[in-house]
Write a structure and sequence with these properties.
The protein has twelve helices and no strands. It is mostly helical.
C-alpha cells in the first residue's frame, strides 16, 4: 500500500541523514557496561551510543547521545549528539522527546547545515502520529504545518520532496474528516452545516480524492435547501472536471429528477 511505501521512504531518508551525521565518527564497540550515566571521554561515549543504535537499541542510544551533550557540552560531538538523540528517539517512537531534541538543536544551531534534517525529523514525528478520521485531528494539523515548513524552507532538498508527498496524504486525510462530518450533518438533516463542510473540501482541498463526492453532496444539499440553480452550478463543475465519475452520473440523474430541463453540464 501507499502508506507502507511512504513509511519506507521516510525511514530511508532518515537513515541516510543519520549515516551522514555519523560518518567519520570514532570506531569501537561498547561493552556490556554501556550505561547512560558513567563519565567517559567524548569519543568513547559517542561510539557507545552509535553502537547501541546500530544494535537496534534506540532508547539506550538516545540516552547515551544525551550524555554526550551533558558531559561534553562544548565538544564538536555535542552538536551531532543532539540530532542523533532526536533520531534515536524517533526510531524508538518516543516522538515527544524526538521533537524536543530536534527543537533544541535548532534553537542552538539554527543555521547549521543539518537544520533541514532537524525540521524534517520534527515533521516525521507528527506525521507518524496521525490517527484515523474518527479522532481529533489536532496532530494532523501539526503534521501539515511542519511538513509545509520543510517544503517552504528547503524546497530543493530530498526532505522537501518527501514532505510534499506526505502533505498530499495529510490533505486527503483532513478532507476525509470534513467529508465524514458533512455526511453526518446530511443524515441529521442539517443541510446548511453539511454544505459548509463540503464547500470547504472543494475550496481548500482541491487536489484530493474527495472533491468529486463533495461536489455531488453539494448538489444534494442545494436541492434539499431549495436552491436548484446552485445544484445545477455544482453539477456543471462536477461534469466539467470529473465527467467520467460515478458522482457526476449520480448528480446528473438527481438534478434531472428534481429540476427537469437542467443539464448539469451535459
Amino acid at each position: 500500500m501507499a502508506e507502507r511505501s511512504l513509511s519506507k521512504i521516510a525511514l530511508s531518508a532518515a537513515a541516510v541523514a543519520a549515516l551522514t551525521l555519523t560518518a567519520g565518527c570514532a570506531g569501537g564497540r561498547g561493552g556490556p557496561k554501556d550505561t547512560a550515566f558513567v563519565a567517559r571521554d567524548v569519543d568513547t561515549l559517542y561510539a557507545a551510543a552509535k553502537d547501541r543504535l546500530e544494535r537496534g537499541q534506540p532508547m539506550i542510544a538516545a540516552a547515551l547521545f544525551d550524555e554526550v551533550e551533558r558531559q561534553h557540552p562544548y565538544s564538536p560531538w555535542a552538536r551531532r549528539a543532539q540530532l542523533m538523540s532526536s533520531f534515536s528517539y524517533y526510531l524508538a517512537k518516543d516522538y515527544n522527546k524526538s521533537i524536543q531534541a530536534a527543537q533544541r538543536f535548532l534553537s542552538i544551531h539554527p543555521g547549521n547545515r543539518d537544520a533541514p534534517y532537524a525540521y524534517y525529523l520534527i515533521s516525521l514525528c507528527y506525521y507518524e502520529q496521525i490517527s484515523d478520521v474518527d479522532r481529533d485531528q489536532k496532530i494532523t494539523m501539526q503534521a501539515k504545518a511542519s511538513l509545509t515548513e520543510v517544503v517552504r524552507r528547503f524546497p530543493n532538498t530530498r526532505y522537501a520532496a518527501d514532505a510534499q508527498i506526505k502533505l498530499d496524504l495529510v490533505n486527503d486525510h483532513l478532507a476525509g474528516k470534513e467529508m465524514q462530518i458533512g455526511r453526518y450533518y446530511e443524515k441529521t438533516g442539517k443541510w446548511l452545516a453539511a454544505s459548509l463542510r463540503f464547500r470547504n473540501v472543494v475550496q481548500n482541498y482541491q487536489t484530493t480524492s474527495h472533491v468529486p463526492e463533495a461536489l455531488f453532496r453539494l448538489v444534494e444539499a442545494s436541492l434539499a435547501l431549495g436552491v436548484p440553480e446552485e445544484a445545477v452550478k455544482y453539477g456543471a463543475v462536477l461534469g466539467a472536471n470529473y465527467p467520467g465519475s460515478k458522482w457526476y452520473e449520480k448528480a446528473y440523474k438527481l438534478i434531472q429528477k428534481n429540476s427537469p430541463g437542467a443539464t448539469a453540464g451535459q
